[in-house]
Write a structure and sequence with these properties.
Distance between the termini: 9 Å
Structural class: alpha/beta
InterPro entries: ATPase_NBD, ROK
Number of helices: 9
Order of helices and strands: EEEHEEEHEHEEEHHHHEHEH
Shape: globular
Family: Belongs to the ROK (NagC/XylR) family.
CATH topology of the largest domain: Nucleotidyltransferase, domain 5
Number of strands: 12
Strand content: 15-25%
CATH class of the largest domain: Alpha Beta
Pfam families: ROK
Largest sheet: 5 strands, mixed
Strand order of the largest sheet: 3-2-1-4-7
Protein name: ROK family protein
């Protein structure tokens, strides 16, 4: 028996099948412009894959403040039509199967807790680095949602005198926006990292500020939650300099206050672009044990 997985993003919807304890049959379609078109595209995927697999349920990763127990998605996202109506019931009726839904960043974290390096860790913070910053916190393998469901929305943290939030300083996308505005260029974050590696002094300053921003957030979270492990996610984790550079800045801050025994592991996620789908499966089996 298999599980149909879907990961809804602003530009595309990825899907796949969890079968025999592995992810298979992955593909995607362009995110539809309307709810009606979204439902049509989803059921078409189900119909096509049902020729190969027998499904016991559907697990969905979605943006926003996902309220599974209440059956709706609150908050905001790039897909407004997903929010603030009984969407879970509509999905259950559409697929005629049990359906679970969870926030996309939480799903990525669940993947690392379920099948990745976060297994058997007491306290884990998962940090997704992209156009902004998000993530999830886990204690004893359980997601810490918080009183209002916003636990892990790290990017709203304000660690700077200029009142900009952490996402402004800790996003490579926003780093590139600032660089381009200051230098009259149109380069990507990757271009800036490459230039820094090749000795460009201006690019090096931006890159070091970025690493320091990530480190500052990790340092602060260390004294709020005291994680055993920080797991970093997002495309930026393909950069081999990310972890050693962040570790260097974090250690410098620990050394400055003379705390030698604060030594959380800082690493990158195991599953990359598949994390949301795998984590959605973990969420489903948490509600419907196999």
């Amino acid at each position: 028996m298999s599980l149909l997985l879907m990961d809804i993003g602003g530009s595309s919807v990825k899907y796949g099948v969890w079968n025999q304890n592995q992810l298979t049959a992955t593909a995607s379609f362009v995110t539809p412009a309307t709810w009606s078109a979204m439902k049509s595209a989803m059921v078409q995927v189900q119909t096509e894959l049902a020729q190969q697999f027998t499904f016991t349920g559907v697990a969905i990763s979605a943006p926003g403040n996902v309220k599974y127990a209440e059956g709706y998605i609150g908050g905001l996202s790039a897909i407004p039509y997903l929010h603030n109506f009984p969407i879970l019931k509509e999905w259950e009726d559409l697929f005629n199967l049990p359906v679970t839904m969870e926030n996309d960043a939480n799903c990525a974290g669940f993947a690392e807790i379920w099948q990745g390096d976060g297994r058997n860790q007491d306290v884990v913070s998962f940090l997704v680095i992209g156009s902004g910053l998000g993530g999830a916190n886990f204690v004893d393998g359980k997601l810490v949602r918080g009183g209002h469901g916003y636990g892990g929305e790290f990017g709203f943290g304000q660690f700077y005198d200029d009142q900009d939030n952490w996402s402004v300083h800790g996003s490579p996308v926003q780093m590139a926006d600032r660089y381009n505005a200051a230098n009259g260029t149109a380069v990507s974050g990757k271009d800036i990292f490459d230039a820094a590696k090749n000795g460009d002094t201006v690019a090096k300053e931006y890159v070091e500020n970025f690493y320091q921003a990530i480190a500052k957030g990790i340092f602060n979270i260390s004294f709020i939650l005291d994680p055993d492990m920080f797991i970093l996610g997002g495309t930026i984790t393909n950069n081999p300099d990310l972890v050693p550079s962040v570790k260097k800045h974090v250690q410098a801050m620990y050394d400055a206050i003379d705390i030698a025994d604060m030594t959380p592991t800082i690493t990158v996620g195991k599953f990359g672009a598949d994390a949301n789908l795998i984590g959605a499966a973990a969420v489903f089996y948490g509600h419907y044990p196999a």
